[in-house]
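ugh ok so i messed up the first submission bc i forgot one of the chains. this is the corrected input, ALL of the components this time, i swear. 774 residues overall. if the numbers dont match what u have on ur side tell me asap before i send this to the collaborators (the ones from the other lab, u know who)
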Amino acid sequence: MFFNSLTFAIFLPIVFVLYWFVFNKNKSTQNAVLIIASYYFYSCWDWRFLFLLVFSTFLDYYTGIRIEKAKTELGRKFWFWLSISVNLGFLGVFKYYNFFADSFSQLLNGFGLQTSPLLLNVILPVGISFYTFHGLSYVIDIYLKRIKAEYNFVDYSLFVSYFPLLVAGPIERATHLLPQVKVKRIFDYQKAKEGIFQFVWGLFKKVVIADTCATYANAIFDNYESMNSLSLILGSVYFAFQIYGDFSGYSDMALGMSKLFGIDLLRNFNYPYFSRDIAEFWRRWHISLSSWFRDYLYIPLGGSSGGTAMKVRNTFIIFLVSGFWHGANWTFIAWGFINALYFLPLLLLKRNRSNMETVSLYWDLNSVKVFFSIVSTFALTCLAWIFFRVKSIGDAFEYIGRIFTNGIFESQYLENERYNYEIIILILAFIIVEWKSRTQIEPISGKYSYLKLTLCFAAIVALGTYSDYKEFIYFQF
Amino acid sequence: MKKFIIHTIGILITFLIVSTLLDFTYTTVYENSIPRTKFQYLRSLKNTKVDYIFLGSSRVENGIDPFIIISKTQKKCINLGYEAAKLGDIYTVLQLLKSYSIATDTVFIQVDYIFDIKGKSINLPYEMTPFIRDNKVTKDYLLDYVGKDPSVYYVPFTRYLRSDQKIGFREFLANLVGSKTAVAEQKGYSPLAGQANESINKNHSSLPASIASHSLYYEKIKKFGAENNIKIVFFCAPFCRHVKNLDYVKKLKTKIPDLYDFSTVIQEDSLFVNCFHLNKLGATEFTEIFAEELFKK
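and heres the new structure output, hopefully the right one now
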């Protein structure tokens, strides 16, 4: 059940009505409605994995309590590591086992030892990386005595399984979401209205920007051997907007619909393509994951407080793990590695926090510099996205090599029966709208909101891609 | 909450109005633009007479040059072949000729293994989509195509969403600015460039080993011709000599006794693009042979 499907368009109003009109007496009934809806939502993907979700939830709920109640440090450690091991074990089995088995086999084959790895024929449970990280942050926070354990199982389950964030985040923190589900939600018209605007804008990003760009990006990436330099450059730009529209669109829909239930979720994107350096990009892209790794991996490793060697080590660890989190493929690790290479000079020169304020452009010389910083950061990001999109690292090098060696910058007719340049105007229009609204959550609110909403609907209906439907990219992670 | 419900209803009404306006705009543009698709070309012939009309699959679309027929007979001729058209599609086009008051004396229909297969053409459904409200024929055909889903007929703009890659914004714009295609100029004929390569010798293309006992649409077509005083002539276009089970055409002749069999009249591999489709030179040669045979009197 995708957010942009007809079934979800029926599901959401039903849950809304039950939540606000039928079971609105207290927070327990409200939470019960949401948890039943969430489990139903998840079982629509594959009901068998519902057991995994419930088990994972119960494990963290139980170990959280045991950690808090443990009388000895050894007991605390035992329950803590039990939770960590089982959580990571699930991820390892479902997401990474085949990758490690296959890579190990290839390594042995490289030494002349012919092996055929024992691979598991399992499908990846939707959202496992997201809800596992929810549970991990909760258990770690209890272990570090940052929060108290939650004793109400329904409330805790809702924190892990709340359907707007269940399958692709944002990755919530107990400190942020749990206090909201512990109290009865009162309907807030303004918040609900904002929620609808944000949901519609997310839908626009998904069906108009992401899915349209996907048609072109796929035609280019899948046939890159026959593409000219211009098509290859455009292909990487289209993919950059595809993944941004897809994931930030999903996040906007999640945040928007959550506001309808009176619950605020963590912001996941903050106009990342207007970043002036890579450090800023990572403060604006998939914020809930970046901050998760910062708080639960980078800082515990020492962060940037140690010597140069430690800074370099920690930077590589966090980016490589972040890449690996996305998927069990060397291409994601390479993508993380490249981003580490981009980030490192900024860190070593202590310029990683030099662009903290909102970006602005005026008619002056400094703005020219800012403009080129944005363009060059975007270009670097696009280069890294190539590794994210291709099937193997070899393909990425060939793709990039061809950009520089082909030398033809002409229009090209693609496999999707369109010319390579056709959606540039759409992307430019999208950039202008985003730029104008970069200080807001979304561009619809504010003055002339109904006119903007109408235009948005018109674009969704007329410009959206429907017959060549694409799943949300981050569902596979 | 009351305020929010009013707000939400307002949003839904806005959405409905936007969809209705877009539906109206798209349909108006498709109805009034110069023909870009074969279906628009067919509609543009409303209330006219065309002496000879060719119907069939891509083996007609790519293989019959109407200009040769015109030069030989001095009569009006068009090619309404559709890629992957089946007998059901052909029957639909026949009905449309009547619905759009396009008079004709003779319709030539290419039949081969399509005698046996069900299904629908690739292009006809989406080319017809903007005109779903034209008449009962278009409505029934499209509703059947979408599995009787009434939303394509009743919910504004839904039909454009379902085929957005083909008749979406891009095609709408092309229609709006009057961007031309060759369809009207070529009278529906779409020749294929190129030539079969040497691997045509190792071709594994095959006609069915057996033939169905009867075809529902064949019977309907015959009946339609008789009822509407249209002469229906069935023929089979050439296959390359490497196709297996060529005796299928003989079996077909037992079902359609008056079938004109041209299945083996072109022997040179160089006149094919692949075993089922002639190239431009092949189409010219075949149309000459066809005209010689059918219009010799």
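quick check: Residues 191-276+359-476 of chain A form one domain. that seems consistent at least. The two ends of chain A are 17 Å apart (CA to CA).
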